[in-house]
Specification:
The structure is a homodimer. Chain A contains twelve helices and 18 strands. In chain A, about 30% of the residues lie in helices and about 25% in strands. Chain A has an eight-stranded mixed β-sheet, sandwiched between helices. A five-stranded mixed β-barrel of chain A has the order 1-2-3-5-4. Chain A has two domains: about 90 residues, OB fold (Dihydrolipoamide Acetyltransferase, E2P); about 260 residues, BirA Bifunctional Protein, domain 2. Chain A is of the alpha+beta class. Chain A starts with 14 loop residues before the first strand and ends in a 20-residue tail after the last helix. At the A-B interface, β1, α3, α4, β6 and β7 of A face β1, α3, α4, β6 and β7 of B. Chains A, B: It catalyses: tRNA(Asx) + L-aspartate + ATP = L-aspartyl-tRNA(Asx) + AMP + diphosphate. Chains A, B: Belongs to the class-II aminoacyl-tRNA synthetase family. Type 2 subfamily.
Chain lengths: ~425, ~425
């Protein structure tokens, strides 16, 4: 529709054609209103029954809610209309009638279970507050990519069909690949590392990852969108700087460019992340958790942070924070240990007060140490030969991290369930749509 | 390395630390040079043997090619050096030694088969002309996304694990998903259509697609990166406008921002796409193919364009061009037919003179026609209920298209094999790295 005008751009005095969904019809007797909704908002269409063509009135007021119509006519100021303007229609065309029985009410007046919403995502996304979540998600991705380019990263795409998983055989979905066994990749980890050994040096990727985790919780997904970063010639401290930079860029961009969306979601006072993220060592973190008195069992060195511990620490700190220098044995083989204390790794996590967001660290770039690390974790280095052998030809020191965009959306917007941050989530029960 | 300087930024008079790979060592007797390479270029490091610390000379000149080193010292002008400057080292550290035997020569002096190159992508990407391809690819993605945002598109991510394929059971990789049969998605087609029926209206996605095609040719991949566009309230003509716009934006951005990379690849006269792409109907296209006299067998109405026909037409036209109004029976069920001639569809292809790039069209948005289309193509509409049922609740007229970024890179840069445009290609024989 070459000449279609968005409702938000219809100005008094214009002759326009608008098109969208029938949000509501209010019939007051001699006068009636059709509220038409499109991606940009809503506009009132006025029907003065006695003064207008009978067929036009009949079609316009007889159409069912959520049908798609286009309306042509003059835009006039009307202070009593919801947006201050209204259209007096000269013509109206029904482009796609809707069944009067809808499986979900897009006006949001009737609450729906998350499961019904996900089964009917098309209708669910006609609610402007749901639309707002996904517009904010898109803005986060845009801002993060822009930040990556500012710090000299090249965008890469690594394969999603792989012969071996990043961390061995667990949590992988098997594929039949022309008669061979293969898997859907659980992380670009090994591939992005191979690229920092090339002239690209510093790379990012935003793409899907697949984890056959049995969890079915409000914060886990079996398919997620991962933001991955990896760079040669930096250590874990500099990797944390870049990580903090991307998140701050995302919050800043959302604050600047998504005011309307934030307002719909109840954030009239959304604040960018101005403060530096505190960086605690793992040792400091467990001491601080124990000092809160909020955990049933005191943590001892070597324990992972439980959900309960994360919650206690998050409430105590009240902002994003890093935890560094984790025990080596709870970090994967590709994380480098401190040379002067092999029990201590150069891995880090970035935590939001509600949950873990990021895993990262300085990587082991020395061939012998890397192969020894595989063996320590019970993995067969031969299976990863395509990866390890490149470490024999000049692999620079490097560091990186990854976070799922869904958890960023979820924590930024205070969503209860991570499924609200994904158009078509995949979990143990849900494979369709 | 907080204070590392890229070689391209080392200016005479600076004291710098540079880090990278040992590209070459030239020993002339009393004087010797180490050429150090990083992501931005190369720099000469000078060793005057009699005037410098013996250990420093021994380490610097004893290191094997492709080892990773960092060098600190003063930058001086030196007209005879390849970049006009050189470093006199005060210290040199070997960060990662390389085996003297390399499986691939990153200097490019020794040719390698594509298969050896792909087995050793890390080393292959130390050639600056290979690096250039992937920097251009990243710039194409950046420019296309920017264009999409300029025309009001929202970025979406649709699932890659699905219960049914877009076009039925063929060419799908099966997955075991928690004991259920599932597939890797061959296209976001159905999901992006579901989104144009929501308030998002106009969407794009750049992500992986998976096709279990048996082809093993220089232009087919089993995993590719697809650029998908779909919009409500437009027809196929407007979809072609957006398609042409994205490609022109990509060429323009590469012309403006990748001069050095183009030059490395031999394109000193790279031209953006300024002319409008001709739009031929299918009927005009087959007539024109037949008139070239370059095809063994004359085409008749209903034939698909063979590789031979595409080649003849491409040479005749000599630029990108669209072919519109294809026979309905060779287009998929979701493409709308002309109401006044159901044998003729509103599908289109965008062709580069060398090959097909894009498939697109006006979609069928009317529920009854859509379900009839499924049946005509021998598909069971019940299996696609999650998709078809949304067409009963107000699905606007819409159109869209998709193209693989690899084919754009391949045709833009005149690459012989599509595998040169993918970091880690997947084909019938290749599953690793």
């Amino acid at each position: 529709m070459q000449n279609r005008t968005y409702t938000a751009e219809a100005e008094p005095g214009d002759e326009v054609t608008v098109a969208g969904w029938v949000h509501e019809i209010r019939d007051l007797g001699g006068i009636a209103f059709l509220i038409l909704r499109d991606a940009t908002g809503k506009i009132q269409v006025k029907f003065e029954k006695d003064e207008m063509d009978e067929d036009l009135v009949e079609t316009g007021l007889g159409v069912s809610r959520e049908s798609v119509v286009s309306v042509s006519g003059a835009v006039e100021e009307e202070p009593r209309a919801p947006t201050g303007v209204e259209i007096t229609p000269e013509s109206l065309e029904v482009l796609a009638p809707a069944d009067p029985e809808l499986p979900l009410d897009p006006s949001g007046k009737v609450d729906a279970e998350i499961s019904t919403r996900l089964d009917n995502r098309t209708l669910d996304l006609r609610k402007e507050e749901v639309q707002a979540i996904f517009e904010i998600r898109a803005e986060i991705l845009r801002a993060v990519r822009e930040y990556f380019r500012e710090v000299d990263c090249t965008e890469i795409t690594t394969p999603k069909i792989v012969a071996t998983g990043t961390e061995g055989g667990t949590e992988l979905f098997p594929i039949t690949y022309f008669g061979q066994e293969a898997f859907m990749n659980q992380s670009p980890q090994l591939f992005k590392q191979l690229m920092v050994g090339s002239n690209l040096e510093r790379v990012f990727e935003i793409g899907p990852i697949f984890r056959a985790e049995e969890h079915n919780t409000p914060r886990h997904l079996n398919e997620a969108t991962m933001i991955d970063f990896e760079s040669a010639f930096i250590d874990h401290h500099e990797a944390m700087d870049v990580c903090e930079g991307t998140l701050k860029a995302a919050y800043q961009a959302v604050a600047e460019n998504c005011e309307a969306q934030l307002s719909l979601l109840g954030y009239d006072d959304f604040e960018p992340l101005d403060e530096s993220f505190p960086r605690l060592t793992y040792e400091e973190a467990i001491e601080r958790v124990n000092a809160t008195g909020e955990v049933d069992e005191q943590l001892v060195w070597g324990d992972d942070l439980s959900t309960e511990a994360e919650k206690a620490l998050g409430e105590d700190i009240g902002s994003h924070y890093f935890v560094t220098d984790w025990p080596s044995e709870i970090k994967p083989f590709y994380i480098q240990d401190h040379d002067d204390d092999p029990d201590l790794s150069k891995g880090f996590d970035l935590m939001h007060p509600r949950m873990e967001l990021v895993s990262g660290g300085q990587r082991e770039h020395r061939y012998e140490n890397l192969v020894a690390g595989f063996e320590q974790q019970g993995l067969d280095p031969e299976q990863f030969d395509y990866y390890t052998k490149m470490f024999r030809y000049g692999m620079p020191p490097h560091a990186g991290w990854a976070y799922g965009v869904e958890r960023v959306v979820m924590t930024m917007l205070g969503l209860e369930n991570i499924r609200e941050a994904v158009l078509f989530p995949r979990d143990r029960q849900r494979l369709s749509p």
